[in-house]
Specification:
Layout (H helix, E strand, L loop, with lengths): L9 H12 L3 H37 L22 H37 L8 H19 L4 H8 L1 H7 L20 E3 L5 E3 L9 H10 L26 E2 L4 H11 L6 E6 L2 H4 L8 H4 L12 H7 L10 E6 L4 H24 L5 H14 L2 E3 L3 H8 L6 H17 L5 E2 L1 E4 L1 H5 L4 H21 L4 H4 L3 E7 L8 H15 L5 H4 L3 E5 L12 H14 L4 E3 L12 H16 L14 H23 L2 H7 L2 H19 L29 H17 L1 H16 L4 H8 L5 H12 L7
Parallel strand pairs: 3-4, 4-5, 5-6, 6-7, 8-9, 9-10, 10-11
Antiparallel strand pairs: 1-2
Helix pairs in contact: 1-2, 1-3, 3-4, 3-7, 3-19, 3-23, 8-11, 11-12, 12-13, 12-28, 17-23, 19-23, 21-22, 23-24, 27-28, 27-29
Protein name: Methylmalonyl-CoA mutase alpha/beta chain catalytic domain-containing protein
Keywords: Isomerase
Pfam family, one: MM_CoA_mutase
Length: 739
């Protein structure tokens, strides 16, 4: 892979961590022992693998950087930044110590004030006036000294609380605004019984210390550290529904999209691609390709396909957003999508004005489109190496193209489209437990941050374009995964990177667990999905896909998708407690789980750091090995019955009625496969005179270190996905896994 993250971290960084932790001698000794044992074993392995990998892959990727020159290249993460995960661990732990110190200070100050108040109200019953004055003076001096221990942030949080409590009162009649609760928001919903259910419930702490701890570690939704959510209130105009779809031809998937959102003002589309597209191929009669065309996803190989896929949706409308689950060939597919959106606006201009736009008008249309388009492209290549396996280019070159996409977004003001969806879902589907899913995903996210910073991008120019994607299963940790992710991300972004408020807000999509769907007793899958959706909504996820019960065996049918959508609608519109938007706050178990999961994530960060960081750990196969171990652990427990799964290894139906061969299966037809091949041939024939020059320009851009995505924006108009992939293999190298 030739992914050279500076691996100097190792044992030296581990020793530094042990000295800086400050969590007591037991923790320090444990950290020191673990660091020395693991780092001494791993440092030589990491260094050896990095050296051999760099030498082995140099030939395949040399052309991507300095054509014909085997000179040493800089690592993806600069040497001086190799300890970033350790720094992140220390940042979070320093914040914890700060919170503990501020809570203790607030409590002491409140106690001293209480003593002064008691003294003032004593009325001479226990001491005379002279003695009382002397004691009051001493208390005042102590209070003045203690008040210096409380920093400005803490004083502000405590001082503004009475006004906030009043502003959020459910029966408040003043709708004029001006306080923390927006005037336009209804603060309560009314049940059939006439009970006013507050949208946001507030704690009833009397103790300043406990109140300050809550505000520093939990706080209201929409307030740092965003533990309860990144927005003060949920939207009332739409549900967080984003259903995944893709099958057959672009026309067929387009019909499914229109079916899924036919009654919704907001059109939130999520696109699944077939494996032919995921691996950057064109459809063909090749035996290993033909049967996969349009199965388990839509086949897209040209700009024509992309335009058909989203026909009838205004891709620049504020209520339309498009998510695309694509990774290896993501830059080319994203370029096709952007061009499809631009073509829509160009066609609209021509229809309105009766002529084609001139060059200046075309440039203005393109700029306006890029500023308006909304959605997400997954493009998370680190997760692909660790869990999902649709890597096609060398990891170094794939990361370069990710950086090129983000730089293009910055240069052209693309603010509403996420350049990457940093994904834990596929890590979980490959077998990881929720702790590992969250730790690996956040570690990958911070790796992208460090890489983009090393390219000269400013944190607040790119961090708002990062989004996250998690799985929700039934393990207890899933109930607090969003809380922990938001708190760690916000803390590190603010305290370590100095990012602004928008950059501190971690926004994420949840898909219910595909791994928890079973072919036995498939009707029970809807019950599991309902519980997973409920905890996602309780935890204020920003968008949600509920799996269909039959996805254990097929791409979902129209009827099963309707049932899956109903799960979300019933929770959001019928389930009473969901009218409250912070139901997890204040529960003892939720608070304890949050702290336990956060600490488990930090420990995993340290293990990854000790192996040379995310990229160094990938060289040794650490992430894949851990995922496989956890998958095997799950399977053992499932097959032994220690982990009960109703309908599978317990409460098994003695007379199963439904046979799998009676089920409706969604598959692409022979005619659809042939149609895609014919359409590809027509596109290639139409662009035969222009594709060669376009592809040559693309390769030259990559060789010279130019912005590959900027070149792709032109190339996709004349070349197919397979042609682009083949051209980029020549200059960027093909992916090969370390063994």
């Amino acid at each position: 892979m030739a992914i050279v993250e500076a691996k100097a971290g190792g044992s030296r960084a581990s020793e530094r961590q042990a000295s800086e932790t400050g969590d007591g001698p037991a923790a320090t000794n444990a950290a020191s022992n673990a660091a020395s044992n693991e780092a001494s074993n791993d440092a030589s392995i990491v260094a050896s693998n990095a050296t051999t990998a760099a030498a082995r892959d140099a030939a395949s990727t040399a052309g991507a950087w300095e054509a014909g020159e085997p000179a040493a290249r800089p690592g993806i993460i600069p040497a001086e930044r190799s300890g970033y995960l350790n720094e992140i661990v220390q940042t979070v732990r320093r914040r914890r110590r700060f919170v503990d110190a501020q809570v203790a200070a607030a409590r002491r100050i409140a106690q001293l004030r209480g003593a002064k108040e008691q003294l003032a109200s004593d009325g001479g019953r226990h001491m005379d006036a002279e003695e009382a004055a002397a004691v009051a003076a001493k208390l005042g001096a102590m209070l003045a000294a203690r008040e210096t221990e409380l920093d400005a942030e803490s004083r502000k949080l405590l001082g503004e609380w009475p006004a906030i409590r009043e502003a959020y009162r459910p029966d408040r009649q003043d709708r004029s605004g001006g306080g923390p609760a927006p005037a336009a928001e209804e603060l309560a919903a009314e049940s059939l019984s006439g009970t006013r259910i507050p949208r946001v419930s507030l704690p009833r702490f009397e103790d300043d210390g406990e109140l300050l701890r809550w505000r520093l570690t939990e706080n209201l939704p929409g307030h740092y550290p965003y533990t309860a959510g990144v927005f003060p209130f949920k939207r009332t105009s739409e549900d967080p529904k984003r259903q995944f779809a893709g099958e057959g031809t672009p026309e067929r998937t387009n019909r499914r999209f229109h079916y899924l959102c036919r009654n919704d003002e907001a059109k939130r589309l999520s696109t699944a691609f077939d494996s032919v597209t995921l691996y950057g191929h064109d459809p063909s009669e090749r035996p290993d390709i033909f049967g996969k065309i349009g199965n388990s996803g839509v086949n897209v190989c040209t700009l024509d396909d992309m335009r058909k896929l989203y026909a009838g949706f205004d891709l620049c409308h504020p209520s339309v957003s498009v998510s695309m689950t694509i990774n290896g060939p993501a830059p080319a597919i994203l370029a096709m999508f952007m061009n499809a959106a631009i073509a829509q606006q160009t066609d609209r201009f021509a229809a309105e004005h009766g002529r084609e736009p001139d060059e200046a008008e075309r440039a203005a249309l393109q700029a306006a489109t890029l500023r308006s388009v909304r959605g997400t492209v997954q493009a998370d290549i680190l997760k692909e190496d660790q869990g999902q396996n649709t890597c096609i280019f060398s990891t170094e070159f794939a990361l370069k193209m990710m950086g090129d996409i983000q730089q293009y977004f910055i240069d052209r003001g693309v603010r509403h489209y996420y350049s990457v969806s940093i994904s834990g879902y596929h890590i979980a589907e490959a077998g990881a437990n929720p702790v590992t899913q969250l730790a690996f995903t956040l570690a990958n996210g911070f790796t992208y941050v460090e890489y983009y910073l090393s390219r000269g991008m400013r944190i607040d120019d790119f961090a708002p374009n990062l989004s996250f994607f998690f799985s929700n299963g039934l393990d207890p940790e899933y109930s607090v995964m969003g809380r922990v992710a938001r708190r760690i991300w916000a803390t590190v972004m603010k305290e370590k990177y100095g990012a602004n408020e928008r950059s501190q807000k971690l926004k994420y999509h949840i898909q219910t667990s595909g791994r928890s769907l079973h072919a036995q007793e498939m009707d029970f899958n809807d019950i599991r999905t309902t519980l997973q959706a409920l905890i996602a909504i309780y935890d204020n996820c920003n968008s949600l896909h509920t799996n269909a019960y039959d996805e254990a065996v097929t791409t979902p049918t129209e009827s099963s998708v309707r049932r899956a959508m109903a799960i979300q609608l019933i929770i959001n519109r019928e389930f009473g407690l969901a009218k409250n938007e912070n139901p997890l706050q204040g529960a003892f178990i939720v608070e304890e789980l949050t702290d336990l999961l956060e600490e488990a994530v930090l420990l995993e960060f340290q293990r990854i750091h000790d192996r040379g960081g995310v990229l160094g750990a990938m060289e040794t196969g650490y992430q894949r090995g851990k995922i496989q171990d956890e998958s095997l652990h799950y399977e053992h427990k499932k097959h032994s019955g220690e982990l009960p799964i109703v309908g599978v290894n317990t409460f098994v139906n003695p007379r199963p009625e439904q046979r799998l061969d009676d089920m409706e299966l969604a598959r692409s037809t022979e005619a659809e496969k042939r149609e895609q091949i014919r359409n590809l041939e027509a596109f290639r024939e139409r662009n035969r005179d222009r594709s060669g020059a376009a592809l040559a320009k693309l390769k030259e851009t990559a060789r010279s270190g130019g912005n590959v995505f900027e070149a792709l924006m032109d190339v996709v108009r004349h070349a197919s996905l397979g042609q682009i992939t083949a051209a980029l293999y020549e200059v960027g190298g093909q992916y090969r896994r370390n063994m």
